């Protein structure tokens, strides 16, 4: 009986330690991202769970820097740190489902975007982090594990992608408000 109690206690402590590590890392952007920006400010963060199962933690950031012409450039970053194994195919199907729910099916080239995302997105495992950076000029890029994964050369893509989480019509409004730093 003591052995079972010990195993349960050890399991709970391990789960707590993993949750703490995930929370600490989602509160900062990796150095390889921060190095490109003079100012970074976290706007908000949220934990996404379904049916009591932790899926991912997300944070939303404002980024700014001066360019060569000393003009201020502004961008945003959405960082998602996964807590579960998820195949890229599942990420793609969830993305398409949300775009259709938001009414984008007739407004945007979803098939072309999904085809490009299929080449960019990896399968994810617990602790993996995908970071999406969207610049005010419409350019964008996905990053993970200290490298750029790719980008979608379509100025409409960035807002459509971020709308999944940040649109006033986003499916999970509590999550949206947390990411935008709005009080509930």
Describe the model.
The chain is an alpha+beta fold and 184 residues long. It has one domain: 3-Layer(bba) Sandwich (Chalcone isomerase). It has helices spanning 2-26, 31-34, 88-101, 110-120, 155-166, 173-180, and strands at residues 39-50, 53-66, 72-82, 129-135, 140-144, 147-150. Strands 1-2-3-4-5-6 form a six-stranded antiparallel β-sheet, with helices on both faces. A hairpin with a 2-residue loop joins β5 (140-144) and β6 (147-150). α3 (88-101) packs antiparallel against α4 (110-120). The radius of gyration is 18 Å and the shape is globular.
CATH class: Alpha Beta
Instruction: Name the beta content range.
Output: 25-35%
Fraction of helical residues: 40-55%
Total number of distinct structural domains? 1
SSE pattern, N- to C-terminal = HHEEEHHEEEHH
What's the shape? globular
- The overall strand count is 6
Task: Characterize the main sheet.
Answer: 6 strands, antiparallel
Structural class comes to: alpha+beta
Q: Count of helices?
A: 6
Rg for CA atoms: 18 Å
The strand order across the widest sheet is 1-2-3-4-5-6
User: What fold name goes in the CATH topology slot?
Assistant: Chalcone isomerase
Low-confidence stretches: 4-24
> First CA to last CA: what distance?
44 Å
Mean model confidence by pLDDT: 84
């Amino acid at each position: 009986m003591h052995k079972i109690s010990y195993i349960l206690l050890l399991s709970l402590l391990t789960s707590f330690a993993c949750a703490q590590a995930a929370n600490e890392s989602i509160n900062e952007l990796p150095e390889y991202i921060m190095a490109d920006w003079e100012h970074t400010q976290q706007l908000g963060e949220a934990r996404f769970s379904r049916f009591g199962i932790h899926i991912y933690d997300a944070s939303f950031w404002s980024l700014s820097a001066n360019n060569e012409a000393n003009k201020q450039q502004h961008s945003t970053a959405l960082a998602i740190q996964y807590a579960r194994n998820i195949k890229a195919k599942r990420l793609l199907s969830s993305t398409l489902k949300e775009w259709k729910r938001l009414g984008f099916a007739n407004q945007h080239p979803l098939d072309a975007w999904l085809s490009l995302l299929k080449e960019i997105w990896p399968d994810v495992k617990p602790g993996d982090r995908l970071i999406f950076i969207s610049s005010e000029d419409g350019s964008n890029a996905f990053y993970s594990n200290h490298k750029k994964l790719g980008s979608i050369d379509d100025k409409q893509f960035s807002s459509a992608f971020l709308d999944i989480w940040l649109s006033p019509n986003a499916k999970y409004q509590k999550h949206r408000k947390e990411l935008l730093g709005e009080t509930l």
